[in-house]
Amino acid sequence: MTERVTISSEGLALAGVLRRADSDRAIVLTGPFTGVKEQVTGLYAERLAAAGFTTLAFDHRGFGQSEGRPQHEDSQGKLADLRAAVSLLAPDYRVALVGICLGGGYAMRAAATDPRVTAVVGIAGAYNSPAWFASRMGLPSYRAALDDMIARYDEFLPAVSATGEAAMPGEEPWSYYSTHTANWTNRVTRGSLHSLMTLDVLGVRPLLPPSLIIHGRKDDYCSPDLTTAMAADQTVWLDTDRHVDLYDGEPHVTRAIEETVSFLS
Question: 221: number of CA atoms within 13 Å, CB side?
Fold first, then answer.
């Protein structure tokens, strides 16, 4: 049974889709940067529900059909959204978190600090580390980038663009988002980039419940090196060509679903 639900998160109404299965196992999904429930999380929610899990896919604050500051990435707010989503299901279900792309990092952060979460899965995940960014960019360049983001915090830029400046530039993200536009808006604040560049996921590794990571060997948008550094209890490497292969590409999505179902079962 599929129903639309409203999640209350710090006074904000978040729009969600709950797919109920005849099981006490449930999964809360969180997805890519700027993503909405009609995109990646919706696909995974439908497939995991067919495999026997109750699933909840929803729009984080400010995106899709949810309330909040429009098109602004709020790291602490998104973690609060995940706590609220878990609260909708617990204690009636054993709740796991599954995150795709940036949601992989948020799922890890949320699972580390919410003891109601029994397991966590990251798929093509972004396991951000400010220290790693600074070491790659050089500390002066990293701090200069943050300074520019703060100076233009409230400005908007495109979320994706095949050419030119965007939060996620290049043909690959454009190829996905330009064809999956339902309830999705192609813009985001520059302050959102500051939120991403200062989010620490690696530091929560010792606090995780049982964890699985599924990642492509080739991924130009979410680093395989950070995936290795995250050191999940189990890591499955897939022979993908692109990051978005694990959004809707076959056979990769089917393999990710199978590995997730096996792990959570």
Answer: 26
